[in-house]
Amino acid sequence: MKAIDHTFAEIELPKPAPAGRDLLVKVEAISVNPVDTKQRKTATSSRILGWDAAGTVEAVGKEVTLFKPGDAVYYAGDVTRPGCDSEYHLVDERIVGRKPKTLDFAQAAAMALTSITAWESFYDRMKVVSGKSMLIIGGAGGVGSIGIQLAKASGLSVIATASRPETVAWVQELGADQVVNHRENLVSQIKKPVDYIANFSGDLDGYWSAMAELVAPQGAMVAIVGNAKPMAMDVVRSKSATMCWELMFTRPRFQTPDMIEQHRLLNEVAARLDAGKLKCTLKETLSPISGANLKKAHQRLEAGTMIGKLVLKGWR
Known about the structure:
Elements: E1 22-31, H1 34-42, E2 53-60, E3 72-75, E4 88-92, E5 96-98, H2 105-109, H3 112-126, E6 133-137, H4 142-153, E7 157-161, H5 165-174, E8 178-180, H6 186-190, E9 194-199, H7 208-214, E10 215-223, H8 234-238, E11 242-245, H9 250-254, H10 261-274, E12 282-286, H11 291-302, E13 309-313
Parallel strand pairs: 6-7, 6-9, 7-8, 9-10, 10-11, 12-13
Antiparallel strand pairs: 1-2, 1-4, 1-13, 2-3, 3-5
């Protein structure tokens, strides 16, 4: 059996045709996320990656009611379908939002996946309530960067983790009330129970004991990655604390009855961005969209030092 070469190639494919509730989007910009590198490393055959895009609707399926050709959109897509690292892309309208008017395509492409992840984590999973406290692990990353802003907008006191001067400055700029170093003991730095804990890092096992210790009685926690080892639950159980999982692909993967909630939340995020209530988290841009630049983008992600989001824009 031939080994899979987990790298990038540029190929020509026929332009897809939309049917049902699909939009055909002419992609103008894409963003990279940890899911891209994970999908690349575990692929058993060639596939199109990418789950963050902004572009213009070129054509629509017969059942489409939310958009029309010419509309500018942004979205994260569906991990069970071909990704958006392509000039033309099919996506279900129910997981697509209108592009924020005040952002260009590159800026908009930075916002979809992370906004969906943080929004669902807070409001669908932990069901946050104003006036309480939240610890965000991975505060300077893509999800943490929008998560800090949403948490502050929800009336929460936010503690964010960061370890370098530039990441500390970034999370403070986004509104974090307190910054703690995730490379040092979190319990000794925070010292008191936290109502909500959002682990937006790629490491659940390493932070689990601190999360269990810090979560308040009847508090809630959420993680966006799974555990590699069994998690000791006695402390969490004694507190009647809730542990939630967030995967923003769940709704499209299982075609849930509330799948359209991603359309609605993306429109709400767009409205807040246009009103200046949220800040775009784009920090780096590469151009054009190419195999070589995608390789560079994946290398940046895998280095583990990203601040905010990285976007590729334009075609040759």
